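agent> step 3/5: call structure_predict on target 'Ubiquitin-specific protease 12' (Genlisea aurea).
agent> reason: downstream docking stage needs a structural representation; sequence fetched in step 2, passing through unchanged.
tool.input:
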Amino acid sequence: LFEGHHMNYIECINVDFKSTRKESFYDLQLDVKGCKDVYASFDKYVEVERLEGDNKYHAEEHGLQDAKKGVLFIDFPPVLQLQLKRFEYDFMRDTMVKINDRYEFPLELDLDRDNGKYLSPEADRSVRNLYMLHSVLVHSGGVHGGHYYAFIRPTLSDQWYKFDDERVTKEDVKRALEEQYGGEEELPQTNPGYNNTPFKFTKYSNAYMLVYIRVSDKDKIICDVDEKDIAEHLRIRLKKEQEEKEDKRRYKAQAHLYTIIKV
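tool.output (status=ok):
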């Protein structure tokens, strides 16, 4: 469900020599800093690096050569997990910082765009890499601490839910998407008549991880789960929890019939 593959390659410019290595991944770490959205991060991910000057590539019998280095995708998984690099090391301040910049992500993600520019030559082009957003994990706070909660649409319908510890509430798409882009927000003016400069503040709650599901696979991934699909030890535990809950409810309901007398 979660495993995809990419190809690291180094290709010489002046001689016929190419080195490739296939690797698997379970999630992709995407840059937030300097990228306005998910597509800009993918563009950066497959960006070609030039190896030249002091940084030439040693191409076996050809010796030191100018070369191109990069990554292309062989296949994407049915469930694509994207971790946004909101936390990074600041060399100037010698400390970890959180990147609260505005960063957009779409409801529908097309990774075949621009004639499949993210795909390697050996990728299967018959697979349509069109994805729907399933969930958004949010981090609220700074680099030294904070709170995590998630917006999920369990069946990929238009109805989103906010899962915040044990509290689950219905939310609209604007709250789940646009309000988690990060960046700055303007406070509404108290005296609209006056020509005041609007007060802006940085939003410290923003998307930290995104989960996308491939459209062609959604029916087999978003399937009904009945009791037999749940592991037996979990069924026993859930049943026990339900019985304990019922005992507590019964005790509460009958509490007014009893009193404690100390003699």
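agent> step 4/5: record observation. The CA atoms of residues 150 and 166 lie 12 Å apart.
agent> proceeding.
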